[in-house]
Amino acid sequence: MHNYLEVNAAGGLVTNGKGEFLLIRRSGLWDLPKGHQDPGESLEDTAVREVEEETGLHGLKLGKFICTTDHCYQRDEKWYLKHTWWYAMSCPEQQECTPQTEEDITEVRWVSKHELPSLLLQTYPTIVEVFRSVGLSEKYLPSVKQNSENFV
Asked: What 3-state DSSP class applies to 5?
């Protein structure tokens, strides 16, 4: 049995005027920008701050709450249970993206929904669930096989 330290985080599913989605590549996998909540910070403020820090974007417009996902990870011999609150966001203007390399982000990329299936094969099951929660057609989502690698 593991003792978990619980962590709250928030992030965003960002779209632009072309209907493209913003993905980041972190540690070799496609992901959505997110991060830990600072003490006294609202989840909405956390979501916007983390997306801006990890992508270099600014002036994002916060939209509706999408869903909450949970996942476990181990770091420095400690187990963490991370609760992430996801929000829709829009980027009102064309901007240059800059990956936050200190967070192991190597790429920030706008992708069309037609590009999603191949990229979402290289992500975490919780990220697929965020896209599913906004009602994206199943034809754009890979099927997530539930196996022991997805669970602790």
From this structure: strand
Residue 16 lies in domain: 4-150
pLDDT in tens, the chain (152 residues): 568 899 999 999 999 999 999 999 999 999 999 999 999 999 999 999 999 999 999 999 999 999 999 998 888 889 999 999 999 999 988 888 999 999 999 999 999 999 999 999 999 999 999 999 998 877 777 665 543 344 33
Closest CA to 52 of 3, 1, 85, 10: 10
**Cα→Cα distances 88→1, 107, 115, Å:** 36, 21, 19
CATH number of 44's domain: 3.90.79.10
Count the domains in the chain. Answer: 1
Judged by DSSP in three states, 130 sits in helix
Q: Which pTM does this prediction carry?
A: 0.88
And the tokens for 129? 């669930």
